[in-house]
Amino acid sequence: EAKRAGGNRHMVFAPSMRERAARRAGIEAELRQALVEEQLFVVYQPVVRLLQCGGVDYAAGVEALVRWRHPVRGIVPPIDFIEVAEECGLIGMLGDFVLERACRDFLDWRARLGERAPGLMAVNLSRAQLAQPGWIDGVRRILRDTGMPPGCLQLEVTESLAAQDQDIQQRLHDLKTLGIQLALDDFGTGYSSLSSLHLLPVDTVKIDRSFVCQADTSAHHRVLIEATVKVARSLGMTTVAEGIETQSQLDVVRNHLCDKVQGYFYSRPLPAPELLDWLATHDAEVH
Ligand code: C2E
Ligand code: MG
Ligand code: MG
Ligand code: MG
C-alpha cells in the first residue's frame, strides 16, 4: 500500500521484517480458521468465444476465482492470501476446495441448463500445488467423486512456472494423461517466449491483461497480441485475451483472430447464483 501511495518512498513506509512476519502469522491462523468455517467461496467469470463473420459470441466456459469472506475485513481478494497459503502449506487444502466446488457447480449448471451450460471450467493452480507429490491423486479423486468429465476441466498455470522447471513440466504431462486441458495463464509476463511455446503441453494460451488493456492504444502491444495469436494458432492452441474492458479492445483482439475473451466488458466474476442469472439473460447468445 505504501508503495502505491508513496512511489519510490516506499522504503520509508515498508513494514519491518518482524511486523511482516507477525502479519503473515495472523493471516495464516485466520486462513486455517477460514477453511474450517467455510469462509472461502468461489466466483466465476464467463469466458466468451468470439465468432468471426457476424456469428453470435457465447459463453463457452468460466474461470473459477477464489474469495474469502472474512468476518471483519469483508471480501478479501486472492492476492492477499494465496501467497500466504502457499508458504504455510495450506494451498493444497485451499486448491482442493476450489477444484471440488468448481466441479460441483459446473455439473449443477449442466443439470439445470443442459446444452446451454458453459462447456469448460477453468481453475487456477499454483506452483506449490503442482510440486506436492500426492497432489495428482487428489485431482483424480475429485474427478471421480464429482463425476466431472476431465475434458471439461482446464487447469491454469502461469507462464513462468511452466517454462523453467523440468519436474513441473513432467507434472503437466501427467495431468494431460488424465484427459484434463491445460492453459498457460498471464502469457507475456513471464520468462518463456513464443519460441518455447511448443515445448509445453498446453491447449490454451491466455494473453495477460497488461497487453490487452493497451490493445487499442499501443501499436506495440497490438503486434505482440497478433504474434502470440499467430504462433499459438499454428501450434493448434486456443487463445484467450484476459481483462477486456472496452469495445475497442474487443474489436482489436477479434480482428487479430483471438478465439476467446474474458473481462469486465462482459462480466465481473460472479457468485454461482448470479452467474446462472447472467447466463439466462445472455440466453440469446448461448448456443
Ligand atoms: P488470473 O488467473 O489471471 O485471473 C484473472 C484476474 O483478473 C482475476 O482477479 C479477475 O477478477 C481479474 N479480471 C478479470 N477481468 C478483468 C478486467 O476486465 N479488468 C480487471 N482490472 N481485472 C479483471 P482475481 O480474482 O483477483 O484473481 C487474481 C489472481 O489470483 C488470479 O489471476 C489467479 O492467478 C489467482 N487466483 C485466483 N483464484 C485462485 C485459486 O483458486 N487458486 C490459485 N492458486 N490462484 C488463484
Ligand atoms: Mg487464471
Ligand atoms: Mg492465474
Ligand atoms: Mg491471468
Automatic annotation (TrEMBL):
Record-annotated EAL domain positions: 24-283
Protein name as it appears in the record: Diguanylate cyclase (GGDEF)-like protein
